[in-house]
Hints:
The structure holds two protein chains of two kinds.
Chain A: H1 12-19, E1 27-29, E2 36-38, H2 47-66, H3 74-82, H4 86-100, H5 104-116, H6 126-137, H7 145-153, H8 156-161, H9 173-180, H10 190-199, H11 209-219, H12 231-238, E3 257-259, E4 262-264, H13 269-279, H14 282-296, H15 303-315, H16 320-333, H17 342-353, H18 374-381, H19 404-421, H20 427-434, H21 438-445, H22 450-458, H23 461-464
Antiparallel strand pairs in A: 1-2, 3-4
Helix pairs in contact in A: 1-16, 4-6, 4-17, 5-6, 7-13, 10-11, 14-15, 14-16, 15-16, 17-19, 19-22, 21-22
Chain B: H1 8-15, E1 17-25, E2 37-43, H2 49-52, H3 59-65, E3 74-75, E4 81-82, H4 87-94, E5 98-105, H5 113-122, H6 134-141, E6 146-149, H7 179-188, H8 191-203, H9 215-227, E7 234-239, H10 255-274, E8 281-287, E9 307-312, E10 321-323, E11 343-344, H11 345-357, H12 361-368, H13 378-382
Parallel strand pairs in B: 2-7, 2-8, 5-10, 5-11
Antiparallel strand pairs in B: 1-6, 1-7, 3-4, 5-9, 8-9
Amino acid sequence: MFRPDTPLPTDIKTWAISQLHSKSPALGIKTKNSQIQEWPQSLQPNLEKRDAMFSLFKANRKKENEGLDGQETPKAKQENRRKNLMGETDELKFSHRNVYGEDQLKLRFTSFWANHFTTGNIHDNQNHIGHAIDEAILANLNGNFSQMLYKATSHPAMLVYLDNVWSAGENSLYTKRQKSQGRQAGLNDNLGRELLELHTVSPSAKYNENDIRNAAKVLAGWGVHTAFESKSELMKLGGTTNTWDFFKKDYAEPGGKVILGKTISAGKGGLKEMTNFLASHDHTIKYISSKLCQHFVSDKPSQADIDYVISKWKQSKGDLEQIHAAVIERAIQSKEPKFQWPMTWIFQVARLSDATFFHGWNELWTYDEKLMDNNRIFEEIGQGFWHTRQPNGYSSDKNEWVSGEMFERRIRFSDAIYTAGRPKVMSSEIMDRIGANEVTRKLVADSGSEKNKFIALMCSPELMGLENA
Amino acid sequence: MPKINLSRREFLKVSGASLFLAGLPLPGFTKDKPSGTISIIMLEGGMDGLTAVPPFGDPNLLRMREDLTSTNFLKLNSFFGLHPSFEYFAGLMAQNNASIVHATSFPYVLRSHFEGQNLMQGGGLSPFSETTGWLGRALDLAKTPGRSLSLDMPLILRGSKDNDNFYPASIKSSGKLMTQLINSISKAHSKNESTAFTKISKKSTQNEVNIPRDPASLAKFAGKAMAQDGGPLASVIKVDQFDTHARQGSEKNGHHGERLVIIDDIIAGLKEGLGEAWNRSIVLTLTEFGRTVAVNGSDGTDHGYGSAGLLAGGAITKSRVISQWPGLGKNEQFEQRDLMATIDYRSVCAACIENALGLDHDLIANKVFFTPKLPRVYDLIFS
């Protein structure tokens, strides 16, 4: 959707497809009264700094418990907490990008893929998730799917979330050493399983437990839980401090591994071989094309829609830009409404109305009488990428989301955005800009005060992506 | 107003459970209201039955998973123990108000969370075969569709379009809902969604309740609601993060032990909230599968098959561990890897429905689980 300050395109399809190339820095607001500006680099640190922040936080937490260095005082505790707001900062940046950015279309695809490659906040993963969304997903939207798959699979956010950092081949040097000392070590198949089931071929490929074990064996050795390792330890384990390309040779399973009939070589290069093979597998293409259509085109996409995306995927050999363009074409052609996720909807409402509903980045630690904390917003709306949640992510199926409670929240959020966010654009102007349909216009006209009109508009079938009466 | 800072652990607890209540009788049905209530605790990720209820009498247990077995379990009998996380549950067992079913599972062996959870909620013959849930179908058969309490509608409760949900919102800067506005929004939507909006307007007169969202408080809230005359007959509380592939731990403060404490807290909360209604209540846990017998490479366990189910409530009058123990020897395991399931957990669910909603077993077997020959285990649990 367009911000009020953006001129409307004459041809939506050309505009949308050209938007796939748009480049925008992370835009947002410093305080609720300030102008839209670029997010400062200091709030977007690299992985090394993120891990250092977390290690310090963890060390101070330990001191809190042990009563050392004055860390147990309420003031020191607060200060320690305030200095590790990376997860909250990333989550706010994601909201800002969605509301203020100039690359909306890419942000929509980013949400799709961030959900496809879900990395929830367990095992102290909060400082990694935002980095994965920006650098593994958004930064790879214009490349090949195989590259995104490789970068997402090998990102610390994924390797920590699905436990791979603790997995070692049964015949690895590490496992043998541990076992000879009577200690436990070996394979953990969590990521191997989800890589096949959720990220690539899906159960329709009819893989078996051996395929899963072998995928886990290829993955064994990848990743490290950096929050617990010093730099010298990292060098010793993986020969690098780059945790996004971190392979522990001692943990690797020797020998080739067969997955769905394909032999993958031993060693670090095996992962790339495996993700390349899976990325171009027929079942992956079918499964993800269908998922894309269900997310963007229609709640019940036609086989023709899915086949079209499959054909473009195959023709382009997995080029995401062409795949996304195909999805856009079908979405524009489709006469069916497409239900909008609660999170997509709330960004859209704030964006269309130019309301200030999200804190500025300087206000993360400030209590506001009227504005909700960013993470509370996601909790109330029942969806958020920083929640602890299951690796299958959020469903795009309308039926998972249609309920009285969910809808009550849409009304309440519309009210709150109007009341606290003080939209700069009237409902009538918004309707003109989006070319609202007759049902929406009638609903709004019958609703009385401007506030009621605003609520009615935002909860109309058109804005929620639902069918008219 | 001060800003509330939740510690990480509190935050995890808050986000670790969600509540659903269902089956508030519609007007006109109140006279036929069955006498019992049924509360489900859904454990997502796969609860480790061998950690929760260690079969210490099996010599293979300590041989295969010494690192995962508490040194501090309570002996229930000469064969089965109870994890120290279950302090409250242990007390209920002593009062003959709780039982355990062991080496049990829904009939699903492919070890995918999402297929397994779908089957455990849908109760169909294969994953993703049903668009309604077994509890929803049972409530429908008992002629008690109606208000349910939840944020979203979990599959297990779906069954009747008359089901509704309720979960108090806490959204700053939003005022009282206006019935007229809701009605006009509702009219603009097509039938299905329109119904959802109508349900908001029905409840818009209710007082705002701010319930704390930790599992024990949610459970107490659910219990209180069910205890009321004309209150819901069913509640579902979901607890996640049982999927302990790494550093599972053995004791109360371990990763799995912490989740078991939440189950214990929920059962305590339900009993407190239910008050006297506890006497006609049954509480049961569900999980999509158990975990591997052997420890994996990262001191955790991978997806398995058989697990244990916990039952509690005044409807139980004699505590026992119900099991046909399959053994933990390599050749006794399912596919030489998992605890075998010897009791179909659908039978346990059927017995609980029979007890709480007063439905006939054959009807449940046919219409709720689509399995006419589903064994009846009612007497094993409730006699």
